[in-house]
Amino acid sequence: MNTRLPDPTPLTMPFWEGLRGHRIRIQYSPSADRYVFYPRAVTPGTLANDLEWREISGAATLITYAIAQRPTAPPWQDSTPQILAVLEWTEGPRFTSSIVDADPPALSVGMQMEPVFMDDADTDLTLLYYRPAKVQGVRPRFG
């Protein structure tokens, strides 16, 4: 894998361990009744100390995207075009990722997306990317 890889911390480790098992786990606040992403120590807005890790479906909607025809940084010099995206999980939080296995002209805001787990054997990390869902109109369940 020719990219910079993240450095998991104790706070983010449940997310990375989930990805290693090809599952997506994010935090949920029972008191706020909502999912939270990126990992945090307390619930945003309320500062409640009740965040727990839960598995989510992984299904997402494409909110916006940009197609980088030139590398966004040296580690991605062989990865153009690079499709950078903001997506929203069915469970609520928005997040950023890259889109793979897609024909850029066929992408459209609002289309349904599914996760792609890419394992890096050298580091034992799994990265999360997205691609258009095989069947639009039906949200797949994962896990």
TrEMBL record:
Domain of life per record:
Bacteria
Task: Tell me the Pfam families matching this sequence.
Answer: OB_ChsH2_C
Q: What is this protein called?
A: ChsH2 C-terminal OB-fold domain-containing protein
Task: Domain (ChsH2 C-terminal OB-fold): give its ranges.
Answer: 53-117
